Amino acid sequence: MTKLSENQRIVITGVGLAAPNASSLPEFRRKLLDGQSEIKEIDLRYMDKAPAGICEFSETKYRKKKENKRGTRAGCIGVYCANEALVDACIDWTYYDKSKTGVYIGLTEHGTVETENEVYNISQFDYNVDYWTHHHNPRTVLNNPAGEITMNLGITGPHYSVGAACAAGNAALIQGLQMLRLGEVDLAICGGISECTGSFGIFASFKAQGALAEHSDPKKASRPFDQDRNGIVISEGGCVYVLETLDRALARGAKIYGELVGHAINSDAKDFVLPYGPRQAECMRLALDRAGLKPEEIDIINTHATGTKQGDIEECRAIRDVFDGCENTYINNTKSHIGHAMGAAGVLELAGNLLSFEDGLVHATINLDTLDPDCYLPNIVANTPKQLDKVDTILNNSFGMVGINSAVIVKKYSF
User: Fold this and answer.
1) Which of 251, 253, 328, 406 lies at a CB distance of 3.0 to 4.6 Å from 170, suitable for a disulfide?
2) Is 304 a catalytic residue?
3) Global pTM?
4) Is the domain covering 10-251 a CATH 2.60.40.1120 domain?
5) DSSP code of 326?
């Protein structure tokens, strides 16, 4: 394989997704512009009901029910999203070689759902391990969702998962870009997946931290920046992209959603849970520098804000620091619609904004009734979409526990 220049242009040519309110990008975009949240309450083992985002999609469209039963929920979501992305990109396997195709999937966690379920199952049989499934080990290895995608599609190139907490989706996108530029692969299938609504432990842990959202109306539970926000709405979901080099995409006449022009990942090195705004600001500045852009050249910032008190404040401080005086930079949030999809969050939220390049609309942050003064930003788009003359650049923030930060910048494709 030939190593490409670090300046080789990398573009997005396909998107496949499963979100709590949609199972395709056009539907997702429409729901975001309409402000439609489909967060609902679910019953939790050992706990009361809690608001959560659950995906509804055609689970047997690309593999049989028996295969889904043997695999994982994350694998099921991943297989659906990857196939949808490849169909969307119109990939022809006579043009691309499956041995030179890489699959990189971001995960916040993996294996807790299967482990909790198996422990519960054997509890019904006096903890007799004879009832423990022999499928447990392949289900819980970290590369499982990426591996399930390769088995379904017959891809023989590299596959692995990228563990980067809630920045994992962005991290996998960056991994795909880097592998293309290195010449390690000719085609990258990358994104993020979350199956965390199946894990009692995740809900219980956020509740113990005082960070699990509560509201009488589950659709209003996710409310970043709002004075009355009280925590995270946990959601499942997935979003997978097809990345190609620009020259190969043009050669086959591909549709181009946008060009990846800037990216950064750094670490707070401060705390297991609490975010640190100054390091988030450094991350955004590094992404801007790599993109060769000034802050005022960013049209949309899609925020990571999850609805926790301190987390939202720290990110807003960071944005104010970097984008002070940028009168034409608008800010929105996607979690207000779909909750926090953990490892899938960054890529789902970026996808929800990609079509702004076509329609010039900035989807709104919903459920923002009373802005927390500590979350003040001059151009937060609240409750109603904002029409701009044009959108050329999007910066997508995605941060995670143990102090990991990521920022990705996508630019509207132009010659």
Assistant:
1) 406
2) yes
3) 0.96
4) no
5) -
